Amino acid sequence: MATQVIMPQLGESVVEGTVMQWFKKEGEKIDEFESLLEVNTDKVNSEIPAPAGGVVLKILVPEGETVKAGTIIAWIGQPGESLEGVPAPAPQGHMQAAPASAQPSEAAQVSVPPVGRDRDLGFISPVVARMAREHNVDLYAVKGSGEGGRITKKDVLAYLEGAPQSQTAPAQPEPAAWETPGEGDLFRPTELMFANNLPPVVAPTVSKPAAPQSPTAPGGGRLVALSQMRKRIAEHMVVSKNTSPHVTSVMEADLSRVVAHRDANKALFARDGVKLTFTAYFMTAAAAALRTYPFVNSSWREDGVWLHDNINIGMATSLGEEGLIVPVIKGAEKLSLLNMARTVNDLAARGRDHRLLPDEVQGGTFTITNHGTGGSLFATPIINQPQCAILGVGAVQKRVVVLENDAIAVRPMVYLSLTFDHRILDGDYADRFLMHIVTFLQKWE
């Protein structure tokens, strides 16, 4: 009897998933527990094993389509087995997403290294491996421009643009592997924020513009198709700006004590296998302030303000041009600096390897975005709905400051910006929260 393949619920709050790639075609043999498809939930990709052995009788959900958890997406059975009389998936369970990727050419395919670390090519991300497979690209012929010569999506696209016109058009991009963080920090976010911690929302209805015409501007140009991640980020940014009245307050902090503490303890932490970065200090300071000012750790509801019991801090993490993701540090108020640094390192490492679980990017109650790693001094980031506020951390710079005794000194300074929902917080409460963070950092024991 045929076995149905169900879209799994890969987390308590995950209600849908997007089929990114089928590893088997209809009619192909598959063993039980062998990887059958790749599913994306909240920008986290997971490989789904086959629930039974046999052949793939029918694929019901094409690549690029989003369906609700529990939807039948395929059937597995024995060769020649009929599917007459088996229930079809409910059409209302499907929600159209990005168009399905182009099918590979019938021509002979080159051998593509698997996702992960290759001895000769370096790290191969999922998007690079998929594009190489679909477009029959020999990655050994592609010159890598990434860190250490790593081949990026841009490199494959550039190679395809120089290839014969018979090549298939580039496939719709999917979330790539995380970029390696810089020396001082473990995340490199931008101000285009966050598609992962939000419940399903409906974007405001707007009139659809006419189809774009061929460009007439001098020099021409080209259209870059929107990935599913970029579409979700755009939708949530518009929804957030139309939901919360955004107000931003900026203060600066002297990090002299933090720098001294970090310099004195980096080697000690390293002996425990933990890299101590400034990220852990900002996370710890924010957790302490959220304990003291609970209304910042809240969400707006029409019947009142919901105060969250736990402090779950999202760590905005850049994926380069692909977008960003926000892994969440659960119970941040309970972590020591050592455990905070260890947790940050773990989330960053598994994020780079695409091994985050859907639940690990869900349930945030507050977010920190470190835009300073790109050199930005201060910014006005967008609130990660349905949270109340987001903290922006600027670049740490040595600046000349005037001390309380009117002496002039050079100190490592940082601008901290707090963007908050003015429906929940007034300026005085928000400023006292931000000052708590400043004081916590400046008086670090």
Task: Describe the model.
This protein folds into 3 domains: 3-95, OB fold (Dihydrolipoamide Acetyltransferase, E2P) (Beta Barrel), CATH 2.40.50.100; 102-171, no CATH class; 228-442, Chloramphenicol Acetyltransferase. The termini are far apart. Strands 12, 15, 18, 19, 20, 21 and 22 form a 7-stranded mixed sheet that branches. Strands 5-4-2-7-9 form a 5-stranded antiparallel sheet, with no helix packed on it. A 4-stranded antiparallel sheet has the order 1-8-6-3, with no helix packed on it. The relative contact order is 0.13. Helices cover 22% and strands 23% of the residues. Helix 5 crosses helix 6 and helix 5 crosses helix 7 (427-442). The chain has 445 residues and is of the alpha+beta class. It contains 7 helices and 22 strands.
Give a quick precis of the structure.
This protein is α+β, with helices and mostly antiparallel strands. The protein has seven helices and 22 strands.
| Helix/strand/pairing category | alpha+beta
Distance between the termini: 67 Å
Task: Assign the CATH class of the largest domain.
Answer: Alpha Beta
Classify the beta-strand content into a percent band.
Answer: 15-25%
- CATH architecture assignment name of the largest domain: 2-Layer Sandwich
Average pLDDT number: 80
Enter the CATH topology name of the largest domain.
Chloramphenicol Acetyltransferase
Q: How many domain regions?
A: 3
* DSSP summary, beta strand count: 22
Q: Supply the number of helical segments.
A: 7
Let me know the CATH homologous superfamily of the largest domain.
Answer: Chloramphenicol acetyltransferase-like domain
Largest sheet: 7 strands, mixed
Radius of gyration from CA coordinates: 24 Å
Question: What order do the helices and strands follow?
Answer: EEEEEEEEEEEHHHEHHEEEEEEHEEEEH
Low-pLDDT ranges: 90-108, 164-211
